[in-house]
């Protein structure tokens, strides 16, 4: 929403970029670490592969959809679409529970 609100201010856009990339870099480092810590040893590689595939597929589909919306409906629509996805994710994530800590190895000793 900040990109939409401050689209005419270079300082506002700069601040929004700083906030976006701060959050992006934080999540890009912590989420794979969390997946690795929570996955059992025997399936850790599979879990990381599914995570990476989802991450890159999301970047592709998000860029494709955002570019299409921007070309078809304009800059404001692209910003509002992104804000809508963020709101939907916040509503979904708000109902999630903190995962229980797992052992570094699977129950069968691997």
Describe this structure in words.
By secondary structure, the protein is mainly α. The protein has one domain (2-94). It contains 4 helices and no strands.
Number of strands: 0
**Can you count the helices?**
4
- The whole-number mean of residue pLDDT values reads 87
Outline, from the CA principal axes? elongated
Strand fraction: under 5%
> Segments where pLDDT lies below 50 for 5+ residues?
none
- Head-to-tail CA distance between termini: 47 Å
Q: How many discrete structural domains?
A: 1
Layout of strands and helices, then pairs:
Blueprint: H1 2-5, H2 10-38, H3 44-73, H4 75-94
Helix pairs in contact: 2-3, 3-4
Brief digest:
This protein is mostly helical and 110 residues long. The protein is built from four helices and no strands.
Keywords:
110 residues, 4 helices, 75% helix
């Amino acid at each position: 929403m900040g990109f939409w609100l401050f689209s005419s201010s270079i300082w506002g856009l700069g601040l929004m970029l700083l906030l976006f990339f701060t959050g992006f870099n934080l999540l890009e480092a912590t989420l794979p670490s969390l997946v690795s810590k929570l996955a059992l040893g025997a399936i850790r590689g599979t879990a990381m592969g599914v995570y990476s595939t989802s991450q890159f597929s999301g970047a592709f589909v998000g860029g494709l959809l955002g570019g299409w919306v921007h070309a078809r409906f304009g800059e404001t629509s692209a910003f509002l679409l992104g804000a809508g996805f963020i709101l939907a994710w916040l509503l979904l994530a708000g109902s999630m529970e903190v995962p229980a800590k797992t052992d570094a190895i699977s129950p069968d000793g691997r």
